[in-house]
Amino acid sequence: MAFSFAYEGAMGEMGAIYIICHDGQIYHANYCQGDDPLNPSHINDIIPVFKDISWRMFDCLSNNPDWKPVDLFAGNNLLVANEIYDAFMKKVQEANLEHPSRLFQRWPGFVLGLIGKEPDSLTMKDIWRLRRTQNE
Questions:
Q1: CA angle, 97 as apex, 19 and 129 as ends, to 5°?
Q2: Do residues 104 and 123 make contact, with C-beta atoms less than 8 angstroms apart?
């Protein structure tokens, strides 16, 4: 449904890739840090839509008609499946975020809320907290 990609040096967890699937499962990988970093050369094999993305310095463009990019600012990008993109952008507008960079924290809840798996209030901080407790 959606996935985020953080450049090296991005705000938050640099090198992070978060994927939210139709069933609400959240997957995580990191191509530059952690105990078992993902080899960057394998990203296209694991996430084929990456082949259709043009990465630029501060944002990205999707050459795949099934995905639309959303800038999360500070080196973070999001791709949202077309089937939920319009509803996602409506949620973003309705949230009346103080600054566009606030979307970085809120996007997981918006996506999970749209697919009926979690309340809209789930944030990246919540996900990081859950990952920390699972790794303890």
A1: 45
A2: no
